[in-house]
Amino acid sequence: MIRVQIIACTLAAAQTRALNRESGRIYSATLVQHYRLFRQAGHVWLSPMKHDRVLKACCGPSFLHAHSYQAAQQDFYEACKTAKALKPTNPLARYPYKRKYYHTTTWKNTGITVVDGRMRLALARGHEPIWVTLPEHLATLPGTAFRQVQLVYSHATKRSCWHITIEDGIVPQPTPHTGIMAVDLGEIHPAACTNGAQATIISCRALRANAQHRNKKTADLQELIARCKPGSRRWKKLVASRKRLQAQTETKQRDMLHKISHAVVQEAQDMQAGTIVMGDVRDVADNTKTNKRLNRENRQKISNWPHGQLRQYVTYKAAAVGIRTALINEAYTSKTCPICGQRNKPKGRNYSCSACGYVGHRDNVGSTNILSKRTTGKLAQLVPCEAIKYRHPVRRASVVRSDKRHVAGASQNPHLVLLSVNDGRAGLEESPRL
Ligand SMILES: [Zn+2]
Question: What is the CATH number that goes with domain 179-205+248-419?
Answer without folding.
Answer: 3.30.420
